[in-house]
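Obj: model holo form, ligand = magnesium ion.
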Amino acid sequence: MTPRLELDDVTVRRDGRTVLRVERLRLTERRVGVVGANGSGKSTLLRLLDGLIDPSTGRVSIDGLDTVRDGRQVRRRVGFCFQDPADQIVMPLVADDIAFGLKNQGVPTSAREARAATVLDRLGIAHLASRTAASLSGGERQLVALAAVLVCEPATVLFDEPTGTLDLVRSLRFSRLLAGLDIQAVVATHDLDLLEDFDRVLVLDRGVIVADDRPGPALARYRALAAETQAVEAQAVEAQVAETPAVGTRRAETFSVSPR
Ligand SMILES: Nc1ncnc2c1ncn2[C@@H]1O[C@H](COP(=O)(O)OP(=O)(O)O)[C@@H](O)[C@H]1O
Ligand SMILES: [Mg+2]
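Output (holo structure tokens):
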């Protein structure tokens, strides 16, 4: 059964500012997308779901396990794929990095090696096992980071902008890979094509969920919102320019009096 992620009366405050406010949210779908402008609260929402940050008020739970009280158990069920793979690759050698999480879970050495080999093979990167993480390209590093999460067999994986640094071919490959994974995935992204086949998409605007729907209508709302914001910003720039008409004139005057 797909895990049940729940938020009740949640706020997150940072530097005295409320950066996320969610009254009630239940996520039970296999594929959930999260979109929104930079700073709208996508990463904050994802981090809450894994207990990486605690809510300032309210409660976050996964299948009834509280992310604050039952943090260890939550993190066993929920994996986090960071925006920057460098934040999560901890061991110099790829194979060791993949096996690292299993060591923490107390899995014996032989089983660790076998599981690491299986997951590398599944992701089509078995040839990278003996490489150093530092020698990998950005896309390869992203796949190694994903392998390190998947090897722990979490029921849910939270992806924070997983295709942000990938080229088109690799983004499409990631999309296909994700489609074949038997996990619940919550994906924050600016790659709207990635969300086409998703079950549900949340649209965040300044820390509030302003749309929650199937991808079609949710993304239409997001596009409309972005267009509105852009229009307001353009108006503000125009108003600013109109308030300073002398700039061009002053320059012309300066040039006209400057000696040759
Ligand atoms: N460690 C922090 N300290 C202060 N403010 C933060 C911190 N992390 C995030 N924020 C603020 O919270 C808001 C939401 O950030 P974030 O969730 O990272 O947005 P997104 O992932 O959508 O770009 C932003 O205004 C950001 O500046
Ligand atoms: Mg973010």
